[in-house]
Design goal:
Largest sheet: 8 strands, mixed, barrel
Number of domains: 2
Radius of gyration: 19 Å
Structural class: mainly beta
Order of helices and strands: EEEHEEEEHHEEEEEE
Strand order of the largest sheet: 4-5-6-9-10-11-12-13
Oligomer: single chain
């Protein structure tokens, strides 16, 4: 748990909420609920705006993962990358206005609470050994290493594979120590973004 201050401000065009940690003054949460105009930016441009904002505020080595668009605002998820391993516990969400690229939101609680340099174990199995345990009916692409959070507040090093079955796309996490399937997520892709369920 983290102690924080919360502030609100509004005028005729903006309603802004911000939460900052009492210790260190880190922004946990920021949201500007202003109305947006006609969209001028695509997702790639929004991701670039978000990345520039994060870099300017000291959040580096982040990899974008999922994103969605709602009411002219793109919400982009970023996770920390250490030595080629995506650390999903260190998550930051950035909201970008698609009319002018303004940053309208930041949710950094996951990153602030979890971020650290980790001693990452060398996988006990190879990527090919991990791929071999996946259902053969799933057309699987090459994998990458990822550190995923578990319910018990620990993290597990996995191989992350994307695959397709009957027209649906999935992400499969195979434990890099014992080849056990840790998690399967379905990817929902639309013109409004990419989400997981």
């Amino acid at each position: 748990n983290m102690d924080f201050y919360s502030f609100r401000s509004s005028d005729e065009n903006h309603e802004i909420t911000i939460s900052m940690t009492k210790k260190g003054g880190h922004v946990l949460y920021y949201l500007d609920n202003r109305a947006t105009g006609p969209e001028q930016l695509n997702f790639d441009q929004a991701i670039q705006q978000a990345r520039q904002f994060l870099n300017a505020h000291g959040y580096t080595n982040l990899k974008e993962s999922y994103y969605e668009k709602t009411n002219g605002v793109a919400t982009i998820n970023f996770a920390y990358e250490q030595g080629g391993v995506i650390c999903y516990s260190d998550l930051i969400k950035v909201k970008v206005a698609l009319d002018d690229g303004e940053i309208l939101g930041l949710e950094a609680k996951g990153y602030i609470m979890n971020h650290k340099q980790r001693d990452l174990n060398t996988p006990a199995i190879t990527e090919q050994e991990a791929k071999a345990v996946i259902n053969k009916h799933l057309a699987v692409e090459d994998g990458k290493l990822a550190l995923i959070p578990k319910d018990s507040l620990r993290e597990v090093l996995c191989y992350e594979f994307t695959g397709n079955y009957n027209g649906s796309n999935f992400i499969i996490y195979i434990n890099a120590e014992n080849a056990r399937e840790e998690k399967i997520l379905m990817l929902i892709e639309s013109e409004d973004g990419i989400l997981t369920v």
